[in-house]
Amino acid sequence: MDKWFNNNNFAKILALAVSLLLWFMIHLDEVPTTPTIATGSTSRIVERTVPVQPYGLDSNSYVLTSLSTDEVRLEIKGQRSMLTSIFTNDDYKVLVDLSEVKDGSNTLPLVPDLPSGVEVVSMEPSMVTVNVEKLGTKSFNVNIVPEGEPAAGYSAGTPVVEPSGAVKVTLPKDSWRL
Predict the structure, then answer these.
(1) Are 93 and 113 in contact (CB under 8 A)?
(2) How far, in Å, CA of 97 to CA of 92, rounded?
(3) Burial class (CB in 10 A: 0-12, 13-18, 19+), 155
(4) Cα separation of 171 and 25, whole Å?
(5) CA gap 21, 30 in Å, rounded
(6) Can you give the pLDDT at residue 175?
(7) Which pLDDT belongs to residue 178?
(8) Which of 14, 63, 75, 108 is close enough to 122 for a disulfide, judged by CB 3.0 to 4.6 Å?
(9) What is the pTM of this model?
């Protein structure tokens, strides 16, 4: 028996057997690729509050001024192992695509982005209203206007503006009316 343990080939076969055993144990609880009827013992429904994450906004042309809701209540279903502590709240996302928005108010659908093996039972709300404003740029000359008098023993010097000339300010176009 000691000869077997000292034999290099026996150690290789034993390592292969242990690795195959571990591989089968890990992949035994995987989500099947074909739809099956889930029983109460293998799946469950969980409720989560997930933040809304906007994406796709052309930040050179528009600015997002408001979002009607910043959180969504999701009811999700999946295998217990997928819904437990394996995934953090960062794995559950609700996205809103802003790539096709126009200036003003836009009502857009929310799209859940969930880990594999998890599906949405319900989502409240399923739509969100976003307000976007077109950006505008104006040039202004910089002037320094000192106010008040220097304290005793001090004197005011000549203000220096670097770089000299006009500066460009970009704000939502509606802000220029102020």
Answers:
(1) yes
(2) 16
(3) exposed
(4) 58
(5) 15
(6) 65
(7) 47
(8) 75
(9) 0.55
- In whole angstroms, what is the distance from residue 44 CA to residue 81 CA? 10
Question: Residue holding tokens 């176009």?
Answer: 173
pLDDT value at residue 35:
44
Find where tokens 């928005």 sit. 101
Helical (H) or strand (E) element with 6: helix 2-6
What pLDDT is stored for residue 37 in this prediction?
A: 44
pLDDT reported for residue 60: 83
Neighbours of 128 (CB within 10 A): 19
Helix H, strand E, coil C: the string for 119-140 is: EEEEEECCEEEEEEEEEEEEEE
Residue whose token pair is 């001090």 = 154
Question: How many C-beta atoms surround the C-beta of residue 48 within 10 A?
Answer: 14
Token pair for 31: 């989500």
Largest pairwise CA distance in the chain: 99
